[in-house]
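Example record

One chain of 287 residues, shown exactly as stored in the release files.
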Amino acid sequence: MTRTFLRDIPKIAAGSASLLAAAYVGLSPRVAGALYANMLFHPNRYPEGDYDCGEIAGIKAEDVFFAGADGKMLHGWHLSVPGSTKTLLFSHGNTGNLTGRPHLLAVLLKCGASVFIYDYRGYGRSDGTPTVQGICDDGRAAFDHLEKERRLKASSIVLYGESLGAAVSCQVSATRNCAGMILQSGFSSLRQIGIEMLPLMKIYPSALFPRPGLDSAQVLEKNTRPLLIIHGEKDGVVPFSHARELYQRAQKPKSFMPLPAAAHNDICFVAADQFIDSVKTFLMALP
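Predicted C-alpha cells for this chain:
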C-alpha cells in the first residue's frame, strides 16, 4: 500500500494544483462577476427616490426615456438652461440613482451649462442589471441620444463623471468626440481601487479583472481633449492619490482643482463656491 501511495503522490499533487488553479480563476473578479457586482453596484430602484422634484435651481427636470445599445430602456433628466452653449452629460456614482443628487445638480446648473443626467441599467427607472460593460454602453447610449435625438453637436457636450461615473466618462471619451471632460472624485483604475479596498485582489493580474478594466489613467494618457479634475483631499472612499495619478498621466490641456476641506460626497456643501468657479472657468475656456 505504501508503494502504491508513493506512486500516486504526483497524481494527487497534480489534482490538487488543478483544483487550486480552478479556484483561483473561478474566484477572480472577471469570472465571478456576480459576486463582485454586489460590491461595486448599489442601485436604488424605482420608486425609491423623489421623482416629482419638478425643478432644480429653477430649471425644470424633464423626464427622458431612451434606448440603450442592447435595447434596454434607460431613464434620465434633462435640465435645459436657457441660452446655454454647453451640456454636461452627467454619469453618476455607484450608489442610489439620479434622484439622490439634487444638490450637486443645483451647483452644476449655477455654472451656466445645461445638464443631462441618466441612470445606468438597473438604477432608478432604467431596465436591466448593472455590469461593468453595461454601464459603459449606457454612457455611450446617453451621448448618442443627446447628439442624434436632441440634435446637440458633439462639440457642445462635456462629459461629467462623478466617482464611478468618472470611469464611465473616460470610456465614453475613448469612442465619442466631446468638448471636454470633468472628472470628480474618480479612481485611476478598477484594479487599483479594488486592491485598496480588498488587498487580497493583488493576487489577480489585470487580465482577471472585468472588461473593460475602467483604467481611466490609461485612457487619459491618450486623451487630448480639455480636462478638469476635481477631488476632495479628505476623500475616504477614493483616496486623493488617485486624482494625482490621473492628473500626472493625463495629456494637456488639463487643470486640477484639489479641495482641501472636501471629502467624497460633500463637495457641493463645503466647497460650492470653489467648485462653481473652477467649473465656470473651465467651461468658458472651451471652444
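Notes: DSSP finds ten helices and twelve strands in the chain.
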